[in-house]
Amino acid sequence: MTSRPVSTRFRPGPGWWVPVLLCGFAALLLNWSGTQAMDNKLLDIQFWLAREYSPQTVEHEPVIVGINEAFLDEVDEPLVLNHVYLAEFLKTMNLAGARAVGMDVSLPEKRYDTLASTRKTDADFHKALLSGILETIQGTPVVAAKVWDMQRRHFINIQVDYAAVLGMQNARFQPLASAEFCRDSDQRIRRFPGKHCQPDGGASGLATEVAAAAGVRQDWSGLINYRLGPRFDYIPLQDVLQLSDKGNIGELKRRFEGRVVLLGATMEATDLVDLPVPLASWLPDGVPNPGVLAHAQLLRSIMNQRMLKPASNEVLFTLCCVFVLFWFGRSVRWKVALFVLAVTSLLAASTVAMQYDVWLPPTAILLTGLLALGSSSAYQGWRHFIDKQRLSKAFSGRVSPAVMDEIVAGREHNYTHSRRLPVCVLFSDIRGFTTLCEHAQAEEVVSLLNRYFAVMSKAVHEHGGTIDKFIGDGMMAFFGAPNALPSPEQSAFDAARDMLYALADLNTELQQEGKPPLAIGIGLHSGDAVIGQVGSAERHEYTAIGDTVNTAARIEGLCKDVGYPVVCSDTVADKLLDLVTFVSLGEKQLKGRSAMAVFGWQLPQETTTNLLKKQANP
């Protein structure tokens, strides 16, 4: 006898394609603008938390010299004619030994050499600035900002003499650099202003070229690290010029020697930008900050070699696919707990990674995991619903609806565990059924019983009863379990009454078919009974056991002798006397127990007459 080889070929289970689809969806999430917008919000929160609770000190701090409202109030000329003051500032920086100077101000487009000052008649605006630049670049590199003209779609060209003198500097940096920023969809400045951000596609940004002028050159990319350094303060331009006028070289060197200096507007209504965190120490939170601070924070990141590097798409995609594993597993409760733990771990990992200047954007990963968990739960819910429907369909004919509801709802303890409950038990059988069987074929008898039990079962179920069993032509049912009823006796009596009405309709059909009518007897008794599952593991049934059940069966046996289709015990009648008219039948001896008072009931006479007429004239 040969054995068949066992196949080890992988056979994916149902729904195997869903994780593959989720990984593909994760790839789309990584490039979706909505994901990036949510990541930006989370990044801002992490920046704020880091600055509040874990401030990062740095070695190389840029110095900001600010042009504020007080300076404009002190000088006679408008800002566009501040050539003399700019020249004095540049020469002062050279004298103070600044490492490099960045000017976040636009140099003039024209010479203005035909203008003269009323207070300084010998002042030549053009020559003063030109000589100031020329003298400064001998010892201190200077980088000036280029401003983009939105209407003309090009950078504004500064006066050719200034550009020529600035161009005489060392070739390691560009003396004219773009002051444009990289703005995200919410207009905040977070990213390094590389080629993709510059309107002309150039790579020379102001902070990059200032750093290069200071001797720090690299192909920069990534995010501006807003975790670094405290809030910025600035030195007013007029204070610098006063120190220069007083010849206080020592103080100037203390403030500027060996440091990168940025000159820019610090006014509350000029050149303002939206930043992830507030950087101006002199402004309240929640307001735009001067643009020179964005250049200064970028310089911090560059000069200290601390640009924030986003994790690669390969790493993010791998983590997304790891979170796709939440599709697997059956226990939703455990998966939710693990998901919360995984989310907490991911956010913690993102925070720790930022300590090493790496940004781990979590949104795409979290959305992928959430989608995997949600789709898995929905799939399991759908399968559970289908299983319930299949289970209900398979067992609906084998157990009563009340028991079926408990099984489908997962409340097995309500019918598997035995309990003593107050119930009302109903027994019924067909009168003269043995004689009927002797004169009919077995198939006809079974067909008749099926029709009979169909209408009887419906009457029982409509009043919340549980059919225990069918015994030949007899039926046992009880009311009050597994679902409690306000009055088991009332429900049992209502079911018995409707059984008689249903029997009358069935007899009408039988008479039309030329078959003899049926007569039944119904016995009712209430009391405590043990309700639960009885049998073996292989075969069991939900049933009622106890003296209440036996007594109900004995009472049903009286129906033929007393001439009433419904006979009940005094325990049932006592609870229904206000609603039902019973006929006292006195005490009757019951087999196996003492005598008991019983009561009879039948359909009202007018109802019986109407039913007979209906049968006679169908």
Helix content: 40-55%
Taking pLDDT < 50 over at least 5 consecutive residues as the criterion, the unreliable ranges are: 1-13
Supply the helix-strand structural class.
alpha/beta
Task: Estimate the mean pLDDT confidence.
Answer: 86
Distance between the termini: 72 Å
Protein name: Adenylate/guanylate cyclase domain-containing protein
Keywords: Membrane, Transmembrane, Transmembrane helix
Pfam family, one: Guanylate_cyc
Organism: Undibacterium hunanense
Characteristic terms for this protein:
Nucleotide_cyclase; 44% helix; transmembrane; eight-stranded mixed β-sheet; Alpha-Beta Plaits; disordered N terminus; rod-shaped; Adenylate/guanylate cyclase domain-containing protein; 17% strand; six-stranded parallel β-sheet; membrane; alpha/beta; 618 residues
Please characterize this protein's 3D structure.
The structure is a single chain. The chain is an alpha/beta fold and 618 residues long. The chain has three domains: 131 residues, no CATH class; 243 residues, no CATH class; 210 residues, Nucleotide cyclase, GGDEF domain (Alpha-Beta Plaits, 2-Layer Sandwich), CATH 3.30.70. 44% of the residues lie in helices and 17% in strands. The protein has 22 helices and 20 strands. A hairpin with a 2-residue loop joins strand 14 and strand 15. Helix 4 runs parallel beside helix 5 and helix 11 runs parallel beside helix 13. The N terminus is likely disordered.
